[in-house]
Amino acid sequence: MAHRPKRTFRQRRADSSDSDGSQEPLAEPGEPRPAEEEPPEGRGAAVAEGPLGRRGRRGRRGGVWASSRRAATPARDDLASGATESRTVDLSADEEDVTCHSSESKAERSSSSESSSSQEETEFSSIVTIPDATFIRAARRKRELARTQDYISLDTKYSSTISGIKQTNDEDPESEPDDHEKRIPFTSRAQTLRQRLAEETRTRNEEASEESQEDENQDTWEQQQMRKAVKITEGRNINLSHSSECQIVKKFDTSISFPPVSLEIIKKQLNRRLTLLQETHHSHLREYEKYIEDVKNSKSAIQKLENSSSETQSFKFYKTMKIYVDNLISFLDEKIINMQEIESSMHALLLKQSMAIMKRRQDELKHESSYLQQLCKAETSTNGSVTTDEKTQWILEEIESRRVQRREARALSGNCSHQEGTSSDEELSLPDMNDFKKSQGDILQAHKKIFEDVHDDFCKIQNVLLKFQQWREKFPDSYYEAFISLCIPKLLSPLIRVQLIDWNPLQFDSIGLKQMSWFTPVEEFMANSMKNSKNEDNSDKKILSAIINKTVIPRLTDFTEFIWDPLSTSQTSSLIMHCRVVLEHSTSENEVNKSKQDLLKSIISRMKKAIEDDVFIPLYPKSFVENKTSPHSRFQERQFWSGVKLFQNILLWNGLLPDETLQELGLGKLLNRYLIIVLLNATPGPAVVKKCNQIAVYLPEKWFENSAMRTSIPPLENFIQFLLQSAHKLYESELSLATQTLMRRDIHPSVHSYIIHNSRRVEAA
């Protein structure tokens, strides 16, 4: 229940104090209170229309209504001395103030205050009479005199002037002082008694309105509490009446009679109840036994189905195979990044070594050629002195020291038929060799750690193929329908690439393709597939070629394009050996292999680049070349035999590259452009015969086995003409027989017959 708010009772005081704190005497009982009473609208309007109207307006302009009311205190003191007339004047002045104030604040009053003021006006009008103009002037003079007592004027003329101006203003209301004659207030003026009374009246009216509002709220609250009390009382009465009715219904009726109960009746009922419970229990036992038997039968059926159902076995196998393949793929995805890093590191190391050797050979060739050119100019000039810089001198000394070492090594091995210039010059300095071996050892050490944390079922190729072989043997239909033969090369490719990291096909003692550890398991997997499969179009027979095309051939292509040196006979022979084996197993019949085409293109482009960059045979005057011990003659001989060596390496690709390509590279670009020119400028003799014999030895026998091919090799025409001219020059000399004997001994019979046949044809022409 809400608490009742306290009512406030405030005492309304009629007295008020002025600015000095002195209290005014209480008004008489019949006398009206100026702060509470206001003239009615009609009377106020009449007063405004009379003589006070214009004077009141002038007073507002002149600032008379804003003056202090402290002058009223001495006026009332004079009235208290017993003068009745002055009491009447003060009352009239106060009435004038109240009337004017009420006319100014009339628009701000509410309707309730207007009604109360109208009632008070009736009482006020019966007592107070309106003063005339004479009394008003006298009252104004007294107020002005009282106002001048607040301060002592230092200038009597100024005060008299001001009083005179005010008097004239009172007498002539039309005349007003100019702006420069008005007093300018520099401080805030104190409130007059009339203003304080107006403020007190306003606050009292507000308090009265608040009290009336509180009274209304109090009445409303009391009414709400009364309504709530009435509703609660009614609810209690209803509940009490309902509970009493229920109690009345529940009362036991003693008039009802029951049949007699005996011990036999109770016993029969208990026996009947016991019989029913026993029957229910037996039925539940029978159901329980039935359920136990059903569970046993179900378990035995499940066990029987699990052991005898092929579908269940296939499901288990497929589930196991799926888990294995998922694990294998995740393992390869995790390791492939490490594999690629190690593979690229090894490739970069070999590339760096190869580029260093090739660059060194080209720099040495450039410096030696420029030195010999300066030497020729020096010998032809009158000075005859050659100046070389320190770098060129150091390079020439290095070249000569390596040649001396190679001569000593050949002398120890017993190879006396070696020609200067046929060496590959692949020797590295001792510091460079040590750095290379150290870097290679670090890479191979990291290579061994790739699969150290992997189970053998995932990193060994034979174990991986065994899983798929079991699938092929148990469920061959699903095996071939899933195209497993296309998936196996992709799964085995990373594992094979790891084994090829330390494989260098350019080394003569490198392991062959068939000796690799992965080759035999793949071959056996294919062989078992061919035995067990009755289908002639077995897709498993292409697994080996797919693996080679995907892993081995790209590896060979990288070596051929970036690392292989065509001037090296050992590298070329080893590369050709591996390429023959790889290309033999890479493709099937009537099948175009893109990786094979890329490999052959890289071989051809590399040989073209070697002919353009590495072949350089200078031509010197015969006076410099006739002396076989001169540096010019020796340099020309070395460069000629270097070109013959490249000619030999190019023609070694016979059987792998097309004949047209080999004839264009070996015969057209190398023999006719470089070698024939040196032979034409040489003097006929045993040296020229030996050179021609060596060139004829390197020609492939396959080109001359067919009789139809004897006249179908246009690039050889220049070489045959040179042989015929050389034979005519040597025919009458004593060396002709020895030359023929030399050529017949070394050249293949088919090549010899081809040369003789074309020589006769050219001679007849």
Automatic annotation (TrEMBL):
InterPro entries named in the record: GCFC2-like, GCFC_dom
Alphabetized PANTHER family for the sequence: GC-RICH SEQUENCE DNA-BINDING FACTOR, INTRON LARGE COMPLEX COMPONENT GCFC2
Signal sequence region: none
Matching Pfam families: GCFC
Species of provenance: Erinaceus europaeus
Biased composition (Low complexity): 42-51
Family as reported in the entry's similarity comment: Belongs to the GCF family.
The protein's name: Intron Large complex component GCFC2 isoform X2
Ranges of compositional bias, category Basic and acidic residues: 196-207
Compositionally biased tracts (Basic residues): 1-11
Biased composition (Acidic residues): 208-219
All residue ranges annotated as the GCF C-terminal domain in the record: 462-675
Chain spans, region Disordered: 1-136, 163-225, 411-430
Keywords annotated in UniProt: Nucleus
Subcellular location: Nucleus
